[in-house]
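RESIDUES AND SHAPES:
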Amino acid sequence: MTEKELIRTSKFLSLILRHEPQRVGIRLEEAGWIPVGELLEAVNRHGAPLTLEELKYVVATNDKKRFAFSEDGTRIRASQGHSVEVDLQYEAQPPPELLYHGTPERFVASIRANGLNKGQRHHVHLSPDPETATKVGQRRGRPVVLTIRAGDMHRQGHVFYRSANGVWLVDYVPPQFIEVRKPV
């Protein structure tokens, strides 16, 4: 699988496992899982050839670990970022004192006024380190890294979850818990 094919396949899997499973005629289970065989049959039937070996390679090499196999390897799901209704069944846990969120510079004024909202997704995504947040923020423009006082939020009752790939999830980040770092 070439690098270009790998990226294209990863984007396609993100689309169907996070946002549009109906595009290939599948239905995700309540927790976002789909049997691997059913996924492979569906994508192949819809003109996107994919073998089990290629799927395993995409999952293993995805830089953000966007996908996870079930413990027995028979099911697959996206780790977070869904816009379709799923319950990922992550357990609430206390976050580290600080987490980070990368965003394009043009959104900073709105975030300062309104906080971080989940929009069409299930949660706001927070990174464990500024480097990861920078990579996330630069996808759509000049990045700004926001420092989130997650420990303070947690002590005030906000509930945090940690996804299988280490991304921290929360419903909303009020503006008073956000510190804006200078653009990188």
